[in-house]
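For anyone still unconvinced, we reproduce a single protein record, the chain in one-letter code, the fold tokenised, and leave readers to judge:
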Amino acid sequence: EVVFSLPGVGKLMYDAVLMTDYPMLLGIVIMTSAVTLILVTVVEVLAAVVDPRVRLT
């Protein structure tokens, strides 16, 4: 965000902290957690597909 001067989630979160916008902070945390959970699940499944030694648990 800083290098390319493009506003993003980091700036949005920073502004929400400064303005004590708790609903916005909660939304950012929930969305970030959901995206992380989805990506971790996709990577685990792909690892099991690519490498047959890896089992899904």
